[in-house]
Hints:
Helix content is 28%, strand content 21%. The protein is an alpha/beta fold.
Amino acid sequence: xxxxxxxxxxxxxxxGSEKNIQWxxxxxxxxxxxxxxxxxxxxxxxxxxxxxxxISNMVIKRFExxxxxxxxxxxxxxxxxxxxxxxxxxxxKMFEVVHESPQLLVIKxxxxxxxxxxxxxxQINLSRYILQKLx
Length: 135
């Protein structure tokens, strides 16, 4: 069961067809430097989520459904915007993106190579970001 089904409960009866994202909670400023360092070797995703926003809740549920077994190698950080707005502000500065919610950033080689917000998040081709050698 995914982190969000644990938090919000799930009424879905997909009988085990659910794909799990290994969410990494983003809760400290120090993790931003960690993310930059990890991104030198592998792609890192940051999902910024507002737990009080209906659109954000719908998008994150649909985003979880995009994950298949081949995407399990992606490192996906989850930021609760209501609890950690200061980290969101630092993400905007560090990766030179305008803050939006919900928002997905793809970090490679210490920079954001893709970002999207709202329903545009669901247009991402996750396979594009796995098993690519980083320059």
